[in-house]
Amino acid sequence: MDDEFLPVAAPMLVGNERQYVLDCLDSSWISSSGAYIGRFERAFAEFCGVRHAVSCTSGTAALHLSLLALGVGPGDEVIVPTLTFAATANAVRYCGATPAFVDSEPETWTMDPEQVAAAIGPRTKGMIVVHLFGHPGNMEALQEIADRRNLFVIEDAAQAHGAEFRGRRVGSIGRLGTFSFFGNKIITTGEGGMITTDDDDLATSMRLLKAHGMDPNRKYWFPVIGYNYRMTNVAAAIGLGQIEKVAWHLERRREVAQWYREHLRSVPGLIWQSEQAWARHVWWMFTIVLDDRLAIARDTVMAQLSASGIDTRPVAYPLHQVPPYQASSQGQRFPVADRLARRGMNLPTSAGMKREQVVRVCDRLAQIVDEAEPARAAQASPSASE
Length: 386
Ligand SMILES: *Cc1c(COP(=O)(O)O)cnc(C)c1O
What we know:
Blueprint: H1 17-27, H2 35-48, E1 52-56, H3 59-69, E2 77-81, H4 86-94, E3 98-102, H5 113-119, E4 124-130, H6 139-149, E5 152-156, E6 164-165, E7 168-169, E8 176-180, E9 193-197, H7 200-210, H8 233-244, H9 246-264, E10 270-272, E11 279-280, E12 287-290, H10 298-307, E13 313-314, H11 323-326, H12 335-343, E14 344-346, H13 355-372, H14 374-378
Parallel strand pairs: 2-3, 2-4, 4-5, 5-8
Antiparallel strand pairs: 1-9, 6-7, 6-11, 8-9, 10-12, 12-14, 13-14
Helix pairs in contact: 1-8, 2-8, 3-4, 3-7, 9-13
The chain binds pyridoxal-5'-phosphate.
Pyridoxal-5'-phosphate binds at residues 58-60, 84-85, 87-88, 130, 156, 158-159, 180, 182, 193.
């Protein structure tokens, strides 16, 4: 058997990244001014179908700048899904505001609109929807709730570059969209982030805040307290190389996901996100959940895959379970997120994966399930998904 280590994620630098970075070095434009920043921002805005794309240092900075520009501050509440990466809620706390957690929908695993409606209180200013693992959230239902109550919607699209809701790219639907270009995301700049919006005033405000709050028309005059969240020209050079090839990245990920679905269909007791009719999923991480019909523990499956050189990642702990947020979530129940986190794992997913690598993961998974529960495997029924 081929025991070559298979990482859960790997960046693919298949375009002009190297050439553009060398150009930065040769020209000595390595700081946060330089032509690649504007070029990357314009290309990204066009990709999302928005007027403005504002680059910054990370997806976390993008969330922080978005909330600041929308005026979120102490005493405010912002609704966020409990099943997300910690940065979504942490950025709310950076502003002195409080995240209010809601559970996921069972089908898409994204924020449940009905529970959002129920979580709205007098201090609620808005919500952050997370397009989890590349599947868009239910934007129509969420936007309708937001409009009715005059709330903002931020799209945390850190995991979903290029995903679509009814043919519209994520990042172009809410007031603001935020993206991460960390090394394991769909496209990367190593570390980096971007905010997308059609709102001229918000874009201006975020450009001010990300550059020390310095008045662009009056040097060394600081009308507000700002931050240093500026992307470097070197990072933008990598980003431009990546975005020029984004169609390739998205196509390859769809193919990898298709192979997973094809080869996992015959394995009993596995569930994955079902791509809704209104959605275009971009498969940041192909993620499986062990059905309760299987008695085997998720961590046992992960350990056995790891022993065969197959790297996986557990679905993140829902934020209501982690220390900074436990107390404020006491007494609330999040059964869908709890189950996904307890029984779910991300499988290796990258644009560079070959079919034989996907087959290797699927065959090993089938074998693990079969060895753990031979009786069940024999009376296999088709998977619940698709
Ligand atoms: C990765 C990620 C972030 C944070 O992005 P960084 O660039 O690492 O700061 C925020 N939200 C979600 C949903 C993420 O997956």
